[in-house]
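ugh ok fine here u go
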Amino acid sequence: MPESRPEVEVRRSARRKRTVDAHREGATVVVNIPASMSRAQERHWVEEMLRRLERADARRRPGRQAGDADLVERAGQLAAAHLDPIAPDGAWPRPASVRWTRPMRTRWASCTPADGTIRVSERLRDVPGWVLDHVLVHELVHLREPSHGPAFRAAEASYPRSERAIGYLEGLSAGAGLAIGGTDEGADDGTGDDETSG
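structure:
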C-alpha cells in the first residue's frame, strides 16, 4: 500500500533567486522557493522535490518498498561483493529464497542452511540500507558456516559496516523494548526453533 502524501509547506523568500530545496520538519515537507516563482512553477517544484525526497528515502531505507525478489537480488549482490572474494572455491553459496516474514519475537532474521532459505523480519523494512545489508550478509554466511565460530565471524566481517550495524540493531531493540539480541546462537536447524538474529 503506497504511503499517503505528506503535508507540504511552501516558503517563499525574496532573498532566494534561483535555488529550490526541501527538507522535513516532523511530518511536514518544507519546500523553499524564490518569491518570484509563479504558482505553476511552485507546483512543479513541489512535485519534483517530493520525488527527490522519495528517491533519497528509497536509497537510505531500501526495505520500505522492497519485495522478496528485491531481497534475493540484494543478497546476490552482497555475496558477490563481499563473500565470493573470500570463498575457498571462489563462489559463496546463494540462497534458494530470501523473503520478508512477519516480525519474529526474538530475531531479526533466520536462515535454514539445509534448504538455503533466508527469512527477514518485517521490522527491518525501515532500517538504513547498510543495516539491512549486514543482516543479509550475516544470514548468507550461515549458508556455509552454520555456527558462530571464528570462520563465521571472519566471513561476517567481510562486510565493512557489520560492527556498526550490530550496534544499531542493539540500540533499536533496546529503544523499542524488544527482546531481540545482538548475536545469535546458530542457524536454524530446520525446525524453526533456532532463528538467527544477525
